[in-house]
Amino acid sequence: DAKKLVRSPSGLRMVPEHRAARSPFGLDEPPWVPDKECPRCMQCDTKFDFITRKHHCRRCGKCFCDKCCSKKVPLPRMCFVDPVRQCAECALVSQKETEFYDKQLKVLMNGATFFVTLGTSDKSELMVCRLSNNQRYLVLDGDSHYEIEIIQISTVQILTEGFTPGGGNTRAIGMILQYKIPGSDEVTQMKFTAGEDFSCNKKLAASWLAAMHKATKLLYESRDQ
Fold first, then answer.
1. Mean pLDDT of the chain
2. Is the model's pLDDT at 168 over the cut of 70?
3. Which CA distances in Å does 73 have to 146, 183, 186?
4. What residues are paired with 131 via a beta bridge?
5. SS3 139
6. Distance of CA 9 to CAs 61, 85, 114, 168, 186, Å?
7. What is the per-residue pLDDT for 48?
8. Per DSSP, what are the bridge partners of residue 175?
9. CATH 3.30.40.10 occupies which residues in the chain?
10. Which tops the pLDDT comparison, 48 or 199?
11. Burial classification of residue 75, based on how many CB atoms lie within 10 Å of its CB (0-12 exposed, 13-18 middle, 19 or more buried)
12. Candidates 1.20.140.10, 2.30.29.160, 3.30.420.40, 3.40.640.10; correct CATH number of 111-224?
């Protein structure tokens, strides 16, 4: 998908030519709190004057002093080219999201192998599941081929094993995905299960499912914006 470089008050952004092509994990730039409505820092309550200047967090749009909004952190969910100024709270969230974009997104795009069961069928098909390069589709390839638009996914339930009442580690072994068919209110369900044999790398499947769990959280946040 073609992209263009645009300049906003917050900085340079590389965005898709068409809004419909944007990543489903993306966030819109927030409106800035107007200067006239912000005589004091919204974190430490320091009064602004000629020495103490106002700065807006690029993620939340609130107004802070330099001390409370000094960090410049990458913000890929808003397509910024360079790290941008953020308040301490937002910077922490953005830093955690950086791991998703640097590592887990690549895991999703590389894909993993699962047995996939459609609806209430008692038959499953071995398929390679991956996220498309534009992040907009979940692509499944086997004897059959499916492309599920990410924005049509309604729920994702990660299936785990290994939990004990006294504690202990759990391991992701599959997921149940529900999504709407475009142009219809009909909801379809798919169940993904990691294979038990050595040809299906269970460790890779578990990593892919963990990345999908994180992606789902970002997807819900984007919808709630």
1. 89
2. no
3. 37, 39, 41
4. 138
5. strand
6. 11, 12, 45, 49, 42
7. 95
8. 158, 192
9. 3-107
10. 48
11. buried
12. 2.30.29.160
